Amino acid sequence: MDIFDAAVSGKQLLLSDENLSGNPFRKDGLTTFQRFRSSIKSVHKLFEPAGYILGLREHTKFVESCYRQYLAEGGVLQFEDFFQHDDPSRTIDLSANAWRERIEFLNELVGPDNVFVYLQEDLSKQFDRVRVGLESFLGTEFKGASQLAGRNIGVGVRSAKVLQTCNRVDVVLRKYHLPVMRGRITNTLGISSPQVCRKWLRWIPQSRNFFSAEQATFLKEHYAADWQFAQNTVATSFS
Predict the structure, then answer these.
(1) What is the C-alpha R_g of the chain?
(2) C-alpha pair distances (Å), 176 with each of 49, 169, 170, 227
């Protein structure tokens, strides 16, 4: 009700939630971009926002982050079955123009002057620059000390394998109505499978890169033009 109370009283609202860009794991027959577009259209119809703030990551880092979240939500697929570039049958699919599609869609919706684009990497490397840019875009000033919150550290490759196995076991346990490792009780006690893998197994030496060096190189070349377009848009947002 706070949202609607503020709207009625004429206050400006800033809505922020990952799912505003569409749940990437929903099995609805849509591509990742189609979910994004559908979700934004619903938001636009409901709230008629004056502008949008879009945060982007380098494509391979985005996919790896999505896979960690997918496992945390109970996913059971291997990483190689989770993502494939330009393949809409996969859980996560990104066309060669993935970020350009999103930016141009928002530009058409509210105009490029009302779209602020930043890079997730800049939050850690150039936090003050991003903050000043946001203040200018929003026409306000953040009061008090502002700093970047602690990073949410996801699982590495070995921990991910353990978590994936736990998720598969949970599927069987649920089938027979037995207690699961990723449930309300274990979560409350701090011993759910995602919590154990994220906190207790993070000290195990392991790579955090799900893509091999060869795959990462290929994908960065594949998405090079799209990433450059995003970086150029960011430069415009801060100009």
Answers:
(1) 20
(2) 46, 11, 10, 47
Token look-up 């490759």 returns 157
Q: Is 233 exposed, middle or buried (0-12, 13-18, 19+ CB in 10 A)?
A: buried
CA distance 156 to 159: 5
| Pairwise pLDDT comparison (81 vs 11), residue with the higher score | 81
Q: Which token pair is 92?
A: 């996560």
Average pLDDT on 115-139 reads: 90
Cβ contacts of 146 within 8 Å, gap of 6 or more? 131
**For residues 177-201, average pLDDT:** 91
Beta strands in 5-124 (DSSP E): 52-56, 115-119
Residues 24 and 183: their CA atoms lie apart, in Å, by: 22
Return the bridge partners of 54, or none: 117
- Are the C-beta atoms of residues 92 and 100 closer than 8 Å to each other? no
pTM for the predicted model, two decimal places = 0.86
* pLDDT at residue 217, as a whole number: 94
Tokens of 178: 């037995």
Percent above pLDDT 70 for the chain: 91
Residue 230 neighbours by CB under 8 Å, 6+ apart: 56, 99, 100, 103, 117, 119
